[in-house]
Write a structure and sequence with these properties.
By secondary structure, this protein is of the alpha/beta class. It has helices at 4-55, 65-73, 97-102, 123-140, 151-159, 179-187, 218-230, 241-250, 274-283, 293-296, 298-317, 322-335, 343-356, 384-393, 398-426, 434-437, and strands at 58-63, 105-113, 145-147, 163-170, 190-194, 233-235, 256-260, 286-289, 362-364. The strands form two sheets. Strands 1, 2, 3, 4, 5 and 6 form a six-stranded parallel sheet that branches. Strands 7-8-9 form a three-stranded parallel sheet. The protein is globular and about 55 Å long.
Length: 441
């Protein structure tokens, strides 16, 4: 037996060794448990996200399926079957009934879109053709889709287990400078209008064209006022920053960005600057974050510019050989694959908008079937629960996630409906002609 100072040192040493062994065991167990927990957490968060999407409708602000019927089938309804797997088409689509169900989509704004080259006489007819195909799609798949005309309709239809189907008119050129056409579009089911698309129009500047109107013209301001009177949401995706500010200066109801992202993270003209985000907070509006790769990252934006340059080069080189241009462009794309963003990078935009505007002013506006390839992890409409799970992983509360999924959009839509009812009590429909107030448009 040891005694005295020597004994104390021996016992102390044995204690340190024993403690170190115990600590090592604890740390090893924690690592293993952490690894298991990480896997478990992923599934737990996804299950939690799916539960939330059963409670509130996930509402997507923009999907271009009606346009796919035009470009692929010239609006022949039987030539695309949404009850089948449309990912097998060439090129693949992002949307079909099965994947809408898998993605727990509760409300979908189907875009009524016509190309900017359709501006001028005939634009309204082209838009009505697209509105017709959108409504025929909803009717064809009535077991899964149902037309929604109000926020209450969305809630009711979601509770009944269907996808509430809404209509948004993409591009003010579709009304051919007519407030009468605007009113009839609302009567036919349109619940938002994107003021411009890719081109500046007679009464508003586009984000991706030469600014010729200094934002909104007097007639443009009248359009916004008439939309407020109707209770139709004013969508300022696609418009220039000056147009955004002009709308925010005069609107009598919360605005909508149906599919845009944060310009601070990627300086693309289709994204929303921080000074506008701050005003959206004051206005009570909502920015529905898009999944378009070149809105999400600078790398994808630069790639898109290079692709456009190559397309223009081939048009100059092979002006009369469409098949040759297509072949050469396909070869270029194979040699230069697109740098796709990730789901996490899309959520970075949500984080930024939350930081600047607040959690009450964020939604989702994918632009599926208007984009070519979705971000990694957001390849099609089946992936929404994974996005909600990522929000939860980043510490968003259940209520925060519900707001992003759909509650914020419902609030904005309800407020537009309420303000419209109030305005209509005292203000009749405007009947001013554009030439009467914009003589030099």
């Amino acid at each position: 037996m040891l005694s005295g100072q020597a004994g104390r040192w021996v016992y102390c040493g044995l204690g340190i060794i024993l403690a170190a062994g115990i600590l090592a065991g604890i740390l090893l167990s924690s690592v293993v448990a952490g690894q298991e927990k990480s896997g478990d957490d992923s599934e737990t968060l996804l299950a939690r996200a799916r539960r939330l999407l059963g409670e509130v409708p996930l509402i997507d602000g923009h999907n271009d399926v009606p346009w796919q019927y035009w470009v692929r089938a010239r609006n022949h309804l039987d030539r695309i079957d949404l009850a089948a797997d449309t990912s097998r088409l060439s090129p693949p689509m992002h949307t079909d009934i099965r994947r809408l169900r898998e993605g727990q989509v509760g409300g979908q704004f189907w875009a009524v879109y016509i190309h900017k080259t359709s501006a001028g006489p005939g634009a309204t007819r082209a838009a009505l053709d697209q509105l017709d195909i959108a409504r025929r799609i909803i009717d064809r798949y009535s077991g899964d889709l149902e037309l929604a005309l109000s926020a209450d309709d969305i809630v009711r239809i979601h509770a009944a287990g269907k996808v509430a189907s809404l209509l948004g008119l993409e591009g003010g050129h579709a009304i051919e400078n007519s407030l009468g056409v605007l009113r009839q579009m609302h009567a036919l089911g349109i619940r938002y209008m994107t003021l411009t698309h890719g081109a500046t129009i007679d009464w508003a500047d586009s984000a991706t064209d030469v600014p010729l109107r200094n934002g909104l013209t007097p007639f443009g301001r009248l359009v916004v006022g008439e939309m407020n009177r109707l209770g139709m949401m004013v969508d300022i995706s696609h418009v220039s920053p000056k147009t955004m500010h002009d709308v925010l200066d005069i609107t009598e109801a919360p605005v909508l960005f149906s599919h845009s992202s944060a310009r601070a993270l990627n300086d693309h003209p289709r994204n929303v600057p921080d000074d506008v985000l701050r005003r959206v907070k004051d206005n009570g509006g909502v920015v529905m974050v898009a999944f378009v790769p070149y809105f999400v990252t600078r790398e994808a934006s630069l790639y898109n510019a290079q692709l456009a340059g190559e397309r223009a080069r081939l048009e100059r080189l092979l002006p009369y050989d469409a098949a040759g241009r297509e072949r050469e462009l396909k070869s270029w794309i194979e040699r230069h694959p697109e740098p796709l963003p990730t789901l996490a990078q899309v959520v970075d935009h949500i984080d930024h908008i939350r930081k600047i505007a607040g959690i009450d002013h964020i939604g989702l506006g994918s632009d599926f079937d208007g984009l070519v390839t979705g971000p990694v992890g957001l390849e099609d409409v089946s992936k929404y629960p994974h996005l909600i799970a990522e929000l939860l992983r980043r510490g968003y509360s259940d209520e925060d996630a519900r707001k992003v999924a759909g509650l914020n959009l419902l609030r904005v839509m309800r407020e537009n409906e309420r303000r419209g009812r109030e305005i209509r009590k005292t203000r009749p429909p405007a009947d001013v002609l554009i030439e009467e107030i914009d003589p030099r448009r």
